[in-house]
Here is the input.
Amino acid sequence: MAGRRTLTIIKPDAFAAGKAGAIIAYLENSGFTIRAARVAHLSQAQAEAFYAVHRGRPFFASLTSFMTSGRCMPMVLERDDAVATLRTVIGATDPAEAAPGTVRKLYAVSKERNAIHASDSDENAVAEMGFFFAEMEVGVGGW
Ligand code: CMP
Here is the structure.
């Protein structure tokens, strides 16, 4: 059965634009409960570690520079079928291709400055939740 928890990040573009509240309301209206949240400002080493799977891609330096450019908001979200549902409601990576009404269509600037991150599998969700939060912060049930 698909897991009930996933990791999202309101990225520096959306956070600096004052869209965190609107995005959180959108996610709660989509049936998600916030299990853990914090405001963070990633170092270059932390951004490179989080996006290590993209190391070597042409956009890696730009992506990690963007992700360290300001504060962001990592959160653990909970609902049934969390990973797939979150990826549906945030929309395609490129806002130009995102479905109408999705978070990225509403708030993203570009394929890189795309407002929000979401884990792409249950396995990666566990790893990404553990990157930002201690298990005790997430509470009963852990990961
Ligand atoms: P995210 O869901 O956080 O996962 C990896 C990120 O890399 C992605 O959102 C985008 O911000 C960024 N990204 C992916 N593909 C490209 C691309 N072709 N050009 C620039 N940035 C990209």
User: Anything to note?
Assistant: The chain has a mean pLDDT of 96. DSSP finds eight helices and four strands in the chain. Strands lie at 5-10, 33-37, 73-78, 116-118.
